[in-house]
Design a protein that fits this description.
- By secondary structure, this protein is mostly beta strands.
- Helix content is about 0%, strand content about 20%.
- The chain is built from no helices and 12 strands.
- The chain has a 5-stranded antiparallel beta sheet, with no helix packed on it.
Length: about 260
């Protein structure tokens, strides 16, 4: 979730893939789809919440780090799959990505509030690039996500949230491609920044200027399995969507469930 009041954008959830993953006949595998982080707000002194993990068998994608609310001076950004950005007047250190560390990396760091104390929120990190630093005019752009065609068409996942802008009419910074929410725009004492897109792992946008401004919530995760149709058991729980592409069957879980090999 994004931070409030010139807040940092939320970091994207961790982006992980595996091919040739061994599935044993008759074995039930648990799928957990993580939820997005909560909104941050200056009025209650809360940062954006970090997302929860998505899991398939032994593969865990970490939830994204929440964006910091304004004036968290001694605190770096929150770490996660991708790191959250920091808010105006806060630490010069964005949240670390790829936390916990895996190879290949599941995400990138968030941006910081670059320069003088009135710099704006940094963007949340994304699967492909880091979040940009905020400037004296506006928030930093969220880090870009990564495209994947496992469903049969190209979809981009895990974009970071954009940082919140100031009171001078600046637009909020764009969220990263892959479901990142835009940062809140200037001259907005109240209102909530755009959320990260559901089932992309996108980070929420940082809140605009104002004690009443609220960051956007983080987007939920997704777990997708693809296998040869000849090997598909048809035994699932959690009601995944089931489609085919050529000789393969694709299961898309937007909520938790199981698959039995």
């Amino acid at each position: 979730g994004g931070g409030g009041d010139n807040g940092g954008g939320g970091g994207a959830g961790g982006y992980r893939t595996a091919t040739g993953f061994g599935v044993s006949a008759g074995t039930q595998y648990t799928i957990t789809v993580g939820g997005g982080g909560s909104s941050g707000r200056q009025s209650s002194g809360t940062d954006g919440g970090s997302g929860s993990n998505s899991v398939f068998a032994t593969i865990t994608s970490a939830g994204g780090g929440g964006g910091r609310t304004q004036n968290q001076a001694s605190n770096p950004g929150l770490s996660g799959g991708s790191g959250g950005g920091v808010g105006q007047g806060s630490s010069r250190t964005g949240g670390a990505g790829n936390t916990p560390s895996v190879s290949p990396s599941q995400g990138n760091p968030g941006g910081h509030s670059n320069g003088p104390g009135n710099s704006r929120g940094g963007g949340g990190g994304g699967a492909s690039t880091s979040g940009q630093d905020g400037t004296s005019g506006g928030g930093g752009t969220g880090g870009a996500g990564t495209a994947n065609n496992i469903t049969g068409s190209s979809v981009t996942y895990a974009g970071g949230g954009g940082g919140g802008a100031d009171q001078n009419g600046n637009s909020g910074a764009p969220g990263g491609n892959g479901g990142g929410g835009n940062g809140g725009g200037g001259n907005t004492e109240t209102g909530t920044a755009p959320a990260g897109s559901s089932n992309t792992g996108g980070g929420g946008g940082g809140g605009a200027q104002g004690n009443g401004a609220i960051g956007g919530g983080g987007g939920s995760g997704v777990v997708i399995l693809r296998m040869a149709t000849a090997s598909y058991s048809g035994t699932t729980t959690g009601s995944p969507s089931v489609t085919t592409s050529g000789t393969d069957t694709i299961l898309r879980y937007t909520g938790s469930g199981t698959y039995t090999g």
